[in-house]
Amino acid sequence: MTSSSWFFVVALVVVAALMAESVRQLRRRWLLVKVEGVSMEPALRDGQEVLAKRTSRIATGDIVVVAAPDPQLGWAEAKRARAPWWVKRVAAGPDEPMPGSGEAVPPGHYFLLSDNPAGEDSRRHGPCPGNLIVGSVIRTF
Fold first, then answer.
1. What is the rounded CA–CA span in Å between residue 38 and residue 47?
2. How far is CA 41 from CA 13, 38, 45, 62, 110, in A?
3. Cα–Cα separations (whole angstroms), residue 23 to 41, 94, 123, 124, 136
4. Is a pLDDT exceeding 80 seen at residue 13?
5. d(CA 112, CA 94)
6. Dihedrals φ, ψ of 54, to 5°?
7. Reading across the β-sheet that carries 49-54, which strands appear in turn?
8. What does DSSP assign to residue 70?
9. How far is residue 10's CA from residue 4's CA, in Å, rounded to a whole number?
10. Contact criterion met (CB below 8 Å) for 136 and 52
11. What is the pTM assigned to this prediction?
C-alpha cells in the first residue's frame, strides 16, 4: 500500500472513532423517551416522544423523566439504569408542601403527579427520591 492509502485508512478510522464518541456524549446528556399511556394527557399524548436533558436541577412545574417504581414495592426498588421510564410533572420539591396533605416533601425527594388524575404517581407511591429523576423534558415530538 502506498502512503496515501494508509493515510486514507487512518483518516477513516479516526472519523469513525470521533463519530462513535460524539454519539456516546450525546446519549450521556440527552434522553429520548416515548410517552406510554394517558397519564400525562392533555399535555402529552400516548405515543408522543419527549427529549429530556439529563440534569439534577429540577424545579416545581417541570415535566421530568423518572425511573418507574416497582409496582409492588414502590420507589425503594426502582432502578435508574433500566426502563421503563415514566414522564411526570413535579408538583412539589424538597421541603415544599405535598398536594393533598400539606406535609413537607422529605429532603432529596420530589412529589410527582400525572396531568391526568387516572395516572399512577406519588399519590400511590409517595415522594420520589431525586436520584431516580433522570432529567427534565425540554421538547416534545
1. 9
2. 47, 5, 6, 15, 21
3. 32, 34, 37, 37, 20
4. yes
5. 12
6. -65, 120
7. 30-34, 49-54, 133-140, 63-67, 85-92, 109-113, 128-129
8. B
9. 10
10. yes
11. 0.81
- Which three cell numbers, joined as nine digits, stand for 117? 388524575
Amino acid at 2: T
Does the structure show a pLDDT above 70 at 45?
Answer: yes
User: Which parts of the chain fold into alpha helices (H)?
Assistant: 3-29, 122-125
DSSP state of 39: T
CA distances from 69 to 8, 24, 72, 113, 119 (A): 50, 27, 8, 13, 13
pLDDT at 128 over 90: yes
Nearest Cα neighbor of 87 from 114, 107, 105, 60 is 114
Question: How far, in Å, CA of 40 to CA of 117, rounded?
Answer: 9
Cβ pair 109, 130 in contact under 8 A: yes
